Amino acid sequence: MLLTLTTTHQPATDLGYLLHKHPDRTFTFELPVGQAQVFYPEVSQERCTVAVLVEVDPVLISRGRQGAGSLPLEPYVNDRPYAASSFLSGALRAAFGTAMAGRSKERPDLAQAALPFHVQLPAVPSRGGPDLAGRLFGPLGYRVTARPHPLDPAFPEWGDSPYLDLTLDAEIRLKDLLAHLSVLILVLDDAKHYYVDESEVDKLLRLGEGWLEDHPERDLITRRALKHQRSLQRAVQAQFADDGEEAVPSPEPRLNDQRLDAVTAALLASGAKSVLDLGCGEGKLLARLLPERQFERLTGMDVSLRELARARGRLRLDELPETYRQRLTLLQGSLTYRDARLSGYDAAALVEVIEHLDPQRLWTLERVVFGQARPGTVIVTTPNEEYNATWATLPAGSARHTDHRFEWTRAQFQAWAGGVAADYGYGVIFKEIGPQDAALGSPTQMAVFSQGAGQ
């Protein structure tokens, strides 16, 4: 399977800097089912083309299939070596991961600029009709040309095959182009060669950031990208709802932004100079806190090394000025184990964290944060379970995310927070975040714990 990507931006050889692949070299890397090559068939100052060639071994594919419900020869004789598929999407992420993050050490401004690109996929499945490519790429600003391949040119009466010769033209940032290709190639094919679990939700949301939530074919994209697993689809829809896009069709900021803004404001109001972001994820709160000069020391901690790597990329930690880097630290660790590194901070934030723990394990978090680390201010946010009834995307009784171990009503959250405050010598006040419902409250509830404050 083959993909070529051409730019006429001048000097066109800048494409090598953006892709982190020198035009004078051929790059070969192994895949679980074969190998891929990246090379430049055309290089000049006026026009530069990079090609990604994926060579798939059907025998290797068959070893993972075990003939599950297929015809005897199907695992060995199929279109996988020839037609663009999730193998190609995976190869793009492996070959151009830094470019997909929007980073270029030599051409940082160019990495954020819209450039002219021409993409050609000589053979891509379109399982949904020849117009599907236009429905997927057209709303993103591409000029789409899709020519169906005939089943057999010698027998035109047989009609067209489900495969397209697809070309795409747009002026677009390279990182956005690669994200669109990575997701939509496998959506066109409607098949994935690997097991899909909850981690695919995060991947889809990351690659779809800034375009998927408003795409007119969002439901189809989500369904196919997650291999038609309804629980994972609900997790994505709940995330969009949790960010306020579906639940609040208004010009208000997304719920996630309102939540992070509220936490930032509470931290500023506390007067804290050193802050822990516990369960920091990909660093969205830290990105808001870092420009505030009040915060002289910021530390983000998460149990997931993958999330910490994403935080490092989001914060561009390696590219920050030294004065910023000295203020920011990322740590790997668990909130259910005592950790001396957490002591000595003025404030701590746990944004949408506690609901990811089993209720019977919450006492360990309470002991670590309130009993041992003991920052002067602790801010906790969590979903308000009552508000879920306002979202049609959530079936009755469902949680907003598949990893949520519980979601509390306002009374349950206030009872828990009041007990923690009493046990560890804090006062606590409560705030609601997001659009108000007269009966059900707001989608997010926040508790601000302060040492020495009255309840």
UniProtKB/TrEMBL annotation:
CDD domains: AdoMet_MTases. Coiled coil: none annotated. Its cofactor is Mg(2+). Residues 1-238 form the Hen1 N-terminal domain. It is an enzyme of class 2 (transferase). Keywords: Magnesium, Metal-binding, Methyltransferase, RNA-binding, RNA-mediated gene silencing, S-adenosyl-L-methionine, Transferase. GO terms for molecular function: metal ion binding; RNA binding; small RNA 2'-O-methyltransferase activity. It catalyses: small RNA 3'-end nucleotide + S-adenosyl-L-methionine = small RNA 3'-end 2'-O-methylnucleotide + S-adenosyl-L-homocysteine + H(+). Residues 276-368 form the Methyltransferase type domain. NCBIfam families: bacter_Hen1. Belongs to the methyltransferase superfamily. HEN1 family. This is Small RNA 2'-O-methyltransferase. It comes from Deinococcus humi. The lineage of its organism: Bacteria, Thermotogati, Deinococcota, Deinococci, Deinococcales.
